[in-house]
Amino acid sequence: MTKKRILILGGGFAGVDCARKLESYFYSDYDIEITLVSDDNFLLFTPMLPQIVAGTIAPRHIVMPLRALCKKARIYESVVRDIDPVQQHVTLEGTPEKIGVRIHYDYLVIALGSETNFFGLKNVEKHSFTMKTLADAISLRNRLIDMLEQAENEKNPKIKKRLLTFVIVGGGFAGVETAGEINDFLHEAVSYYHNIKRDDVRVTLIEAGTTILPGFTKNLSKYAHSRLEKNGIKILVQNAVTSFDGKNIVIKKLSDSSSESIIDSHTLIWTAGVTPVEIIQNSVFKLKNGKIIVNEFLEIPNYPGIFAIGDCSQLDSETNNKFPPTAQLAEAHAKLTAYNIKQMIENKEKKKFEYKWKGQSAVIGKRYGIAETMGMKITGFWAWLLWRNYYLTKMPNIEKRIRVWLDWNIDLFSRIDISRYGFKRDTSKEYRELDEVDDVW
Ligand SMILES: Cc1cc2nc3c(=O)[nH]c(=O)nc-3n(C[C@H](O)[C@H](O)[C@H](O)COP(=O)(O)OP(=O)(O)OC[C@H]3O[C@@H](n4cnc5c(N)ncnc54)[C@H](O)[C@@H]3O)c2cc1C
Q: What is the value of pTM for the model shown?
């Protein structure tokens, strides 16, 4: 057999699962080359990201090095700059130390995920915090502690109130779970501060839709709503943030467009939407809602051998699009794509994508959750326990699983940690322009 080169772009759930499955098919087949490109050298276990903010889990424990997960694949830690489906190559950005690289492929898997969507609200983008990356979670944790430290010695009640007001935008998984963790963290943390009372801390969750966690049944989302309110979180549904200057958050009531209000706060956390990464938005592929349209084999129409999976893809048939983008869906995409590539290499028939929904769960603060699985609807402590067990078993690295399990158990018996990590928010690299590249064949 002639050598076949499989190139996977993106080291998230979809990319890593696809690489691992391909490795299991072709581990000792030296005619198959697998290459994985990602801008980070680790897989981030996003469902546990909000717990990094609260300090329940140590940051290192929810990231797994790509080189430990993928043993055969050649790994490039780099940014994809250009995808050329006609010449069948992908160009990676260079750095000040190293020139760019061009990688040629026979099969391509695009699994580049998504980035935060600010819907064109430039001032919100400039001043708010996001929850997509490990750096985001650490920055946010630092911010919460910063605000408590400043408020402790603040004499002006108006400034103090503003420092202790925290607003989360977006009532989906990321927003609700982050709101729950932040609220618990702040309420526990105030015990260290002599001049801050529990009631001084205000956490508000804003959602433009009519309900939070809209993917769940009505009763479960109602339960989540009232549990968060009981824990002290104010929830505003059918409200949208229209502007934020770093001090004042302007909110528009959607049921009455003339009604505007302002919340004084320095901390806005934006989880209200995602959009595909720029490289996909600027690609030659046909997009729908900004995502690459794929057929029932998860292949891009008119480009045989090129697949798009995970958050950055959308099936062309409406009936198959009823599932929200999640890690489980990305995993299912990845497994089928690896299988279909194997079939293509062996000149056999490809399989169509069929997804069996396994259920979903969300944590809503410490010891509470909601879950629906196998026809059952579960709330409270048991749902929280189910969430923990499910996601622990989903972690692909056993060592990290043990570390997270230990973190959770130590947290049950210990006082909250309010030490801040020495970490700067802006870590942008200075990339070298693409004027020269190395060809990798
Ligand atoms: C806070 C939070 C909580 C969540 N909770 C849950 C949950 O409880 N359950 C659930 O199922 N889902 C959850 N999700 C959603 C889940 O994380 C996504 O659906 C899943 O990560 C999608 O996988 P993916 O591989 O398509 O994309 P990602 O995991 O986003 O992976 C994309 C990868 O591509 C890399 N990349 C992007 N652009 C480039 C480029 N130009 N060059 C090189 N590399 C690039 C990224 O760094 C990343 O490694 C949550 C998400 C967040 C943010």
A: 0.91
